[in-house]
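Supplementary Methods S3. Input chains for the assembly prediction are listed below.
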Amino acid sequence: MPYSGERLRIARQRRGLSGKQLAEKAGLTPVTISKAENGHHVEEATFAACAAALDYPIEFFLLDAPQQIPAETVSFRSLAKMGAAERDAALAAGTLGVELYEWVSERFNLPAPDLIDLSKERDRPYIAARLLRQHWGLGDRPIGNMLALLESKGVRVLSLAENTKNVDAYSFWKAEHPYVFLNQEKTPERSIFDSAHELGHLVMHHHAGAKYNRDAECQADAFASAFLMPEADVMNEICGVSTASQVIRHKSRWRVSAMALAYRLHKLSLISEWTYRSICIELGKLGYRSAEPTGIKRETSVVWEKVLLTLWNERVTKADIATELRIPYHELEALMFELAGPKSASGNNARLRLVH
Ligand SMILES: [Zn+2]
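Predicted structure tokens for the full assembly:
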């Protein structure tokens, strides 16, 4: 049976190990690891030793060649903070996430992708945000549940695993399917903003030969800000704001952080530069720079709740899914971390057609 060197690399990257580190753990030489990963013939015992060292089922290496996520098609925000191992671990999670979603899509009718190509508007992200809202018939209303909205438009949302904390979030297209990976360690408000930011990348950048730079990051942020807080609605609701406590009182309407709302008010010229700065200082003192003291509840996935509940009724557990995908159970848990919510059995009436 042919073992897949590419899959060995994926498993090693998920563990955050270099070839040398894996060699040490598995009692092999780095040359052997490199040969195995590059598809040269190595003994079966090599894969067995690696599987044991990585705590991965050896069957994982026997599956078809994996769906690699090319690094250049992915937008990473904080590249400076992130090491190569962390980036590779996040990309490898992307591969596992695609395989998980393909497993689900063979059993469920998932919503079809309904995104539009707005790459022509990337220099005017506020227009792109308005056009997408128009396309989806959202008007200027605040978004009640960003995660459910993305899922209902065919965006496949997964969690970023625990060993990739410096990655904010990332997104990519795999064939016609858009994917977003969220870092669920952040505040719910930040996750919502990240979702909108990645949505911006998906509609403005991924079609255009994917060049990621500072500009693309600013454009995605501006898109997120305009998409979550439409100008007309903000103008309608906000009048005469001048203090941090007023910003805190208003933010829940758009489910954003106090800092994000203050920034939006400043951008829309509803507060002066001076007021904006003093509000930011005040918010910082109140702990709103790194956290969200009066925060909202984390959004949960409608897709995963329904999928898990349906499978559960058929006596299929998460452990069974992990076994079918030949991945360790905790890898599956990481991909769904905090997405399905504590009680999958709760009735959820979000607009999402999911036919089993
Ligand atoms: Zn970005």
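Strands lie at 156-159, 169-174, 177-182. The pocket of zinc ion is lined by residues 75, 77, 197, 201, 217, 220 (CB under 6 Å).
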